[in-house]
Amino acid sequence: MRRLIATTAVTALALALAACGSGTDSGDGTTLHVAAAASLTSSFEEIAMAYEAEHDGVKVDLQFAGSSDLATQITNGAQIDVFASADEKNMDKVKDAVDGEPTIFATNTLTIITEPGNPKRITGLTNLANKDLAVVVCAPQVPCGAATQTLLQRQHVTVDAASEESKVTDVLTKVTAGEADAGLVYVTDATGAGDKVATVPAKGAGQVVNSYPIATLDGSPRADKAQAFVDFVTGPEGQKVLKDKGFGAP
């Protein structure tokens, strides 16, 4: 399998990823480039620190964005070593660039968040259909948005969203900044926000589960270290971090 050569997509993210992957092994050590779903930010920052502590001379450079954006950058030639997606659909998009079979390492579900104290007294999904509320959700093309669509359809709820965000972290930011009354995010994002939000269970969310795959990318000049990072994420130390952040078991 080979990695496609970049010809288009001159975006800031593409440039950043392509630049960081242009070859950073040096006499001072190795930089491992990891692209991960935005919902993994807190977890992977902690995992990367633990990985670096056990691997002398290796620095982990983390790039976070929506999984669909990251998949696009990979197919356009961004030179990264490891990809962790928030769903299998976006991992499938880069299957020609993946070395071997991806491994499912975590699961996640959705919940409703509101401003602290829940001033609008939202009690469930049906309240989100109220046109007087400013509700933000993820865009359909990103994993949290696809899960949101599935959940709302199954619960027969129609939401006229104030905005559709490209990253679940942007939904969280709009609610914590007071720019929205409510939003649908992953349980892990709500847990990580602590008392900055109030959490309201979403009926049926337990039946709409996102599985997170991780894989090394074909042609990585740091293949052994990339595989070691994947093994770390799927091993006891990585799994403990993910569990503590609220992720479900694979």
Automatic annotation (TrEMBL):
Q: Where does molybdate bind?
A: 39, 67, 168, 186
Superkingdom of origin organism: Bacteria
| PROSITE patterns in UniProt | PROKAR_LIPOPROTEIN
Gene Ontology MF terms in the entry: metal ion binding; molybdate ion binding
Give the UniProt keywords, A-Z.
Answer: Metal-binding, Molybdenum, Signal
Q: What would be one Pfam family of this protein?
A: SBP_bac_11
Q: Which CDD domains match?
A: PBP2_ModA_like_1 (cd13538)
Record keyword Transport present:
no
InterPro entries in the record, alphabetically?
Answer: ModA, ModA/WtpA
| Membrane-spanning ranges | none
Is Membrane there in the keyword field? Answer: no
A Gene Ontology annotation in the biological process aspect, one of them, is:
molybdate ion transport
Secretion signal span: 1-18
Family affiliation: Belongs to the bacterial solute-binding protein ModA family.
Tell me the NCBIfam families matching this sequence: modA
> What protein name applies here?
Molybdate ABC transporter substrate-binding protein
What organism is this sequence from? Janibacter limosus
Which gene does this sequence derive from?
A: modA
